[in-house]
Amino acid sequence: MDSLQLDDFTDLIERPDGGVRRDAEARRERLAVPSGALGRLDELGEWLAAAQGAVPVRPVEHPKLVLFAGDHGIASLGVSRRPEGGAAGLVRAVLEGESPAAVLARRLDVPVRVVDLALDCDPDAFPAEVTRHRVRRGSGRIDIEDALTAEEAEAAFRAGMAVADEEADSGTDLVVLGDVSVGGTTAAAVLVAALCGTDASVVTGRGGEAIDDLAWMRKCAAVRDALRRARPVLGDQLQLLATVGGADLTAMTGFLLQCAVRKLPVILDGVVASACALVGQRVAFRAPDWWLAGHDSGEPGQAKALDRMALEPLLDQGVRVGEGAGALLALPLVRSAAALAAELPERPETEKAEEPEGSEGSEGSEGSEGSEGSEGSEGSEGSEESV
Questions:
Q1: What residues does 307 pair with on adjacent strands?
Q2: Which end of the chain is more exposed for a tag (fewer CB within 10 A), N or C?
Q3: Are 297 and 148 in contact (CB under 8 A)?
Q4: Which of 84, 323, 384, 385 is catalytic?
Q5: Res. 371: pLDDT tops 80
């Protein structure tokens, strides 16, 4: 098997089609609803058209919630309200349809896929389709040891890429990405702090089930100690993930990058998905153009990561439960943007003909070819990042 070359992603990942985006913007200008009246929904529709390479934009008909699961050894320090090794119980609740994400997915008619990379339980506890990509049982305690060996990190990264290919090949047209982990937000905070050059306290949050002040101080100390171990390997993203990430976070990073290669758009959930996206951006700078930030989870590490990638959350409902629930809430918004962009009627031809005389207004629309001043389209590609 060829060794993994992350540098290849820089060449393999292209931006969403800028020409298609300009066509979508031009079509929007012809709609009967006044420009700007739909707010950010216009931007979303144009982003989706560029990602699909289609005008008018196609409806999102086959979304999938994909959850990467794993336990983290750092949870043994009491950095979470959930028990060490407790991710298996969370996965069981998802599979049995009893978690918030499972309820929302059912109501939105979105299939759910759980991928076990490092749950701390017997592999026979779950169906083979959940465990077939498992790399190890739990990830190492990152304040004192590596989360993974180099071989395990490569296997996890390749597993994430394989899952992305499976989804793209099966017809999934948009992914909602989340995690099911215990200790995952601590590993995510370390990655964000390392890549943004910030102190542990700036990126350390209180998790889905908010921890008290004492547990938060333990979590800060764990992030600080792991950060010391992360800094020497910042130049090698796979080694960084092996040192302070974990099997689930490593797989999520591979998944995100391969989704960008396959032109499969992704809605990111909380701090864990955002931290993996930040690693992905370091690998391939165009990759974030394929991702949306679903919501603001309130985690400071997520805010830092999204700011670095120029991604603005679609929603802010204070949802901290994780498992993709917050990002699922953003899915109807994306679907609505697609429907509006595709189905709203254009203004009648007579109205277009009655537009300002002395079509200087419209030669001021050569100022619209100065919409090659929509080379403010690179302004538009810049805006692809900020959607």
A1: none
A2: N
A3: no
A4: 323
A5: no
